[in-house]
Amino acid sequence: MQWQEFWELHRKTILIVLGGVALLIGGWLYSRPTPANPTFATAVSTKPAAVDKSKAATTPAKVCVDVKGAVNRPGVYTLGKNARVQEAIAAAGGVHTDADMRQVNLAKQLQDQQVVYVPAQGEQLPGGLTTGMAADQTGPSTSTGGQDTPKINLNQASKEELCQINGIGDKKADMIIQYRQQHGPFKSIDELKNVDGFGDKTVAKLKDQAAV
User: Fold this and answer.
1) Which among 181, 149, 179, 147 is positioned nearest to 165, based on CA atoms?
2) 3-state secondary structure the chain
3) pLDDT over 80 at 105, yes or no
């Protein structure tokens, strides 16, 4: 009887409280985040990653060189952009037993469309190809001024050939070779001015005897 009396006395208050609780629970359920759709999640997780077109379009730079002389497999080879003469010779199967490697600069960096020539013992060729360095010509440039004396190519000539130029001795020949090993081929005769010991007058006198 006490419960009935309590209910009769407080029924309105109890209903108000229960209604408020119901509203709170309903609001909480409504604002609660729903689980992700399994099908959608699976589709997203299995979607292939986008391809970086800039990377896909980028291809490693290459150089193409012609390896000749005392090598086992002479021919044209494609190598990496920063490849050296040593790598070109290795691609050609190495050298013959009679190859004169004293004249070959194995550390020389290759350039596209050039020749790497490995001389045999006692072999002498025009144009400095006996140095074994990469070159894009097979011989020295010749004078067009009616003279029969060929010009010496500064980028291809050996030390002995450089000394054949009037005004160049052993020391200057060594400096020319050192300069082209450090800075690459000469672009013009005037670039000799960047080498110690070569002034304007000296370079002017050499233009009839040298070429690049």
Assistant:
1) 149
2) CHHHHHHHHHHHHHHHHHHHHHHHHHHHHHHCCCCCCHHHHHHHHHCCCCCCHHHHCCCCCEEEEEEEECECCCEEEEEECCCEHHHHHHHCCCECCCECHHHCCCCCECCCCEEEEECECCCCCHHHHHHCCEECCCCCCECCCCCCCECEECCCCCHHHHCCCCCCCHHHHHHHHHHHHHHCCCCCHHHHHHCCCCCHHHHHHHCCCEEC
3) yes
pTM above 0.85, yes or no: no
In order of 56, 110, 117, 132, 152, the CA distances from 103 in angstroms are: 42, 16, 10, 6, 18
CB of 161 within 8 A of CB of 152? yes
Q: Six-digit token pair at 27?
A: 């609001």
Closest CA to 114 of 144, 86, 158, 76: 76
Would you say how long the chain is, in residues? 212
**pLDDT of 49-78, one tens digit each?**
555 555 544 556 899 999 988 899 999 999
Encoded amino acid at 144, one letter? T
**What is the pLDDT at residue 141?**
37
Q: How confident is the model over 152-184, as pLDDT tens digits?
A: 888 888 888 888 888 888 898 899 998 988 888
Segment of 4-8, 21-25, 85-89 carrying the highest mean pLDDT = 85-89
